[in-house]
MFS transporter (Pseudoduganella dura), 452 residues
Amino acid sequence: MQHAPPIHAATSAATRTRTRWTILAMLFAVTTINYADRATISIAGPALKADLGLSSVQMGFVFSAFAWSYVLAQLPGGWLLDRFGSRITYFFSIFLWSLFTMLTGAIGFFTGGAAVALLFALRLLVGAAEAPSFPGNSRIASSWFPTHERGLAAAVFNSAQYFATVLFAPIMGWLVHTYDWHSVFYVMGGLGILIAFVWLKVIHGPRQHPSINAAELQYIKEGGALVDLESTRHGTEPSKVDVFACIKELLSNRMLLGVYVAQYCITTLTYFFLTWFPVYLVQERGMTILKAGFVASLPAIAGFLGGIAGGWLSDRLSKAGYSLSISRKVPIVIGMLLSMSMIGCNYIETDMLVVAMMSLAFFGKGVGALGWAVVSDTSPKEAGGLSGALFNTFGNTAGITTPIVIGYIVQNTGSFAGALVYVGANAAVAVFCYLFIVGDIKRVVLTKSLVK
C-alpha cells in the first residue's frame, strides 16, 4: 500500500526523463557557491583580523554582519519568490551576492575605521542578496520532486554547505597563504557571477522545462510535486494571501513553531562551523591557516556524508511505509544526539582525536539537517516562499547570535571550552523540539489568510 500508485507503473523509469536530477545538481552547485561565499570571511579571518587589527569581539560582529541582513531580508525574499517565481528572483540573488563578495576584496585599498565599516557593509549586502536562496531551493524541490524523493533532494542541496568547505576551504586557504586574503573574495565572487548565467540556462518550472517529457511530469505530479508552483499559465491561478495575516497564521501553528525553533538550534552548529571553527583550529589548537584550511575540510566531508545518509534514511523509512513524521524525525533526533559529541573535544589533547570528534559531530549535524525537507512537506502551496523564508529567519537568527556569543565567551574565558558546550546544548534543544513540540508533520492548509 505504501508503494507508488498504478499510474507510476505505466510511466516506468525506462520511459521517464530524469530532468529533476539535473535541477537538483544545479541547486547543489549554486548552494555550494553560496556557502563558499559565506565562508570566505572565515578562511580569510585570521589574516584579515591581523591586517585590520580587530579584537575577538569586533571579529564576532564582522562574522555576524552577514546574518543580520540575511535574516531581515528573508520575508521580503520569500515574497519576491512567490511574486516573481524562483528562476528570476534566484538569478538576481546569485549575481548580486557574488558581485558584493568580489567587491569585498577591494577593502585592501582602505585602512582603519573606513576598512572595517566597508567590510561590515559589504557583508550586510552579501547577506541581503543571499536571502532568497534556501527558500528558493525548497520551493523548487516542492515543484520538482515527489514526496518520497524529497528527503534526499533536500538533503543533497543542504549538504552542499559541507561540500563547499571540502572543495573550497583548502583552495581558499591556499589563496590566502600564497597571495593574500583579498584574492579569496575576487576568485569566489567571479565564479559566482559565471554560475548565475548557467542558472538561467538550466532552471525552469516543470511545465516549462524543454527537457522533461510527459511521463516524468506525470510521475512527479502523481507523487505530490506542486508542478504548477512556477506557472500561472496552466491550471488555476494561485490563491493570493494577505502577507501579514499569513505570517501570523504560520506562527500560530504549533508544528511549524517547533520546527522553526529547532532550526535556530541546528543552525547554531552551522554558524560555529562557518565562522569560528577555523579560528578555533588556529587559536586553540595552534595550527597554521594553511593547515587549518585543509583540516576544516575533514569534518565537512563527514557532514556531507551525513547529509546524504540522513536524506537516504528518511526516504527509505518513507518508502517502507512509515509515516512522514517518523521518517523525518528519526534522522533528525539521531543526528542531533551525535552532534553533542563535540563537547568531548574539551577533554582531548590530541589534534587527530579532536578532528575525529568534530567529524563525528558534523556527521551527526548532516544526518539531522532535514529541516528543508520538512519545509517542503509542510509549506502551504499558496505561500511556499513565505513559509520557507520564515523558517530561514528563525534558523539564521543563529547566524547573528552564535558568532557574537562565542566571541564574548572566547574573550572572557580565554578558551573555546564554553563555546563548545553552548553549541552542543543547542543540539539538545533541537531534539526536545522534534520529540515534544512538533507533533505530526503534514502540509499546512491556510484558512485565515487567503484573499482570492
Observations:
- The radius of gyration is 21 Å.
